[in-house]
Amino acid sequence: MKSLYLSLGLLACMARTFALHADEYLYPVGAVSGESLQVYVLHQKSLDDVVLLSWNPFSGQAHPVLLSRYTPAFFSVLPDASGFSFFDRGCMHIKSFGKRSPQSIPLYEPICDFNAFVWVDAQHFCFAGNYHSSYGIFEGSTSGACRCLLHDPQGTVEYLYPQVCGDKLFCIARRKYGSHAVICTPYPARDATLETPEQFDGSDDAYEQVAKLIAHDHAPCACVKSEACTAIAELNDWPCAFLQMVSDREGFVIQHPPAINSAKPVVQCVLWRLRAALDGSWHCTRLFAFGLPTSLLLGDPDTQLYESILPLLPRYAQGQIFYVDTNEEAGALVTRLHSYNVLLGMHTLLATASPNEPLLAPLQEQQILFYGGRVAADDAGEESALPRRWFDENGQQCLHVPSIYCCPKCLHTVSYRILT
Fold first, then answer.
1. Per the domain annotation, does 357 fall within a domain?
2. Whole-model pTM above 0.90?
């Protein structure tokens, strides 16, 4: 039995284990719609070799967007669509589309073990990190400034998975005695003096400056008082993670077992909906359960995903939740891709994988749902439902990422293949 929080943490996602004959995976992590649609795809050759590709779904051509020394995870398009961010070896980087090299964002000790990350605007982001053996919520900026938003120095409550909607900060509170809750608090006002910080060069003085900011000795960095936090959902003894707020009145959270049993082939999770009523009260509704294959999270490094659970999480888009569900059937694991209409409470089956083949990371863009999986063998035909990778007669790398057309005016979906 291993702690699920450890397995979901960023450092676990970035464990670098060499594998000689590892399974290869291709799956979408983001998209940018401009003059042409560009889908960003993560190609995992092994836990030690991960490449971020920019793929044109209409020409099929793809090319790497980062130097080979980077092993990216936690890809996120910037709020102004001017570039993207990613983590590598615990360090955050920003890659602008007009520049060749990424910019490193200095987030130094004593904050470590970055757990979750979300952009607030084009210059500021929120993240959960470990400070003095207790997780809290912090705000960072592209200039290198850092301030504390939520932290309990006594360690009786830890704060995880921040989400920002307007002037409100949402996150998960994990109490020392085991219960979990989703909480809401006003987002602290920003002090302009923090936008031009001292340059932290890793010296003892720089570390002391950061520690002073976070330890509340600097007035503009004082954390939100616990009295200002309101619990909008009590989830009791079952842990929850991966809070996603789609507005300041609606969100979703995943409930999971207290620990992963590596002997069981499937990890069972539950998705809950959080919704505010007209009178301001919040209601928590169970939507559905879904299973995740344990082999992609733990065990044999040849089958594990570099990003751990991230490519398996449900994704919300335009009133629909797209998710994968794995079940054990006749001695094999069968994974299905579903959509769930939040308003009508209706499930739609979109795709069923072959036995023991995973489906990964459903991503909707322009009414097209892209999803990933294990890379097909070299001799697989063009009609293979698995992701494929090859080189054309000009030596240009090409990809096929499975896709489904989602009709915006009807409840059903129809299969749609992009010609490559």
1. no
2. no
Residue 206 within a domain: yes
Within a domain: 197: yes
Element (H, E) at 11: helix 10-13
**Maximum CA extent, the chain:** 65
Contact 298, 304 (CB under 8 A): yes
| pLDDT tens for each residue of the chain, 420 residues long | 334 443 444 434 444 444 457 899 999 999 998 778 999 999 999 998 999 999 999 999 999 999 999 999 999 999 999 999 999 988 899 999 988 899 998 776 578 888 788 999 999 999 999 988 899 999 988 888 888 999 998 889 999 999 999 999 999 999 888 789 999 999 987 765 444 433 334 444 444 544 554 444 333 334 665 667 889 998 877 789 999 999 999 999 999 988 888 899 999 999 999 999 999 899 999 999 999 999 999 978 999 999 999 999 999 998 999 999 999 999 999 999 999 999 999 999 999 999 999 999 899 998 899 999 999 876 555 556 789 999 999 999 999 999 998 765 554 444 433 333
Answer yes or no: is 334 within a domain. no
Token pair, residue 58, equals 């209409």
Please give the tally of structural domains in the chain.
Answer: 1
The token duo for 292 is 């995740």
Contact 413, 403 (CB under 8 A): no
CA 374-370-10 angle, 5° bins: 65
Alpha-carbon gap, residue 226 to 289, rounded angstroms: 32
Two tokens, residue 303: 């089958």
What is the extent of the structural domain holding 185? Answer: 106-251
- DSSP assigned state of 187: P
User: Would you state the torsion angle of the CA atoms of residues 407, 410, 415, 420, taken in this order, to the nearest 10 degrees?
Assistant: -10
**How many alpha carbons fall within 13 Å on the CB side of residue 93?**
21
What burial class does residue 225 get, using C-beta atoms within 10 Å of its C-beta: 0-12 exposed, 13-18 middle, 19+ buried? Answer: exposed
CA distances from 332 to 56, 269, 350, 389 (A): 34, 19, 20, 26
Under a CB-based contact definition with an 8 Å cutoff, are residues 371 and 417 in contact?
no
C-alpha span between 293 and 307 (Å, rounded): 14
